[in-house]
Amino acid sequence: MIHTVIFDRDGVLSEQIPQPPEYGTGVGGAWRLEDFRIIPAAIDAVWYTHGRGLDMFVATNQPYIAKGIMTSDVMYQMNAHLFEVLGISSENVYFCPHSKENNCACRKPKPGLLLAAAKEHGFSLDEAVMIGDRPSDILAGQNAGCAMTILIGNNDQKTRDALDAVGAKPKYICSDVSCAVRLF
Question: What is the pLDDT of residues 161-177, one digit of tens each?
């Protein structure tokens, strides 16, 4: 039985935006407070999850901090906005400020963030679901021993190939987080 939901932040609860030019191409999380926006489906998802009495946590990689593109203060302000809009306590937000090059234990796909949340809050990961939008989120859930992982994205060949390339095996693939929280 699921008692805890662990959400990735960027791309699941908040919008992805084009990455800063010095960081590369593609999309990622906001690095400026004025660009940080909650995804409308996240409001419904958190309301629904709260109504079921499930505990909620956030586990997020924030490499812009290590790269000097964003400060920790801005990240904390974004998390405060999560609390204001979604009601997820800042005490329940776990973040990795490192880049891939740091090879730390907390950066997803490693399970450090999830293990820390479980230890500090006394919940069992085999009664938790990890919801994320990248293969690294799914792997973090698998590596931590979560009961279930759900990917937010398209169920197309490109997505399946990306998951297969790293051995990520979500139980479900959903178009948005509001759909995902109704699967368990």
Answer: 999 999 999 999 999 99
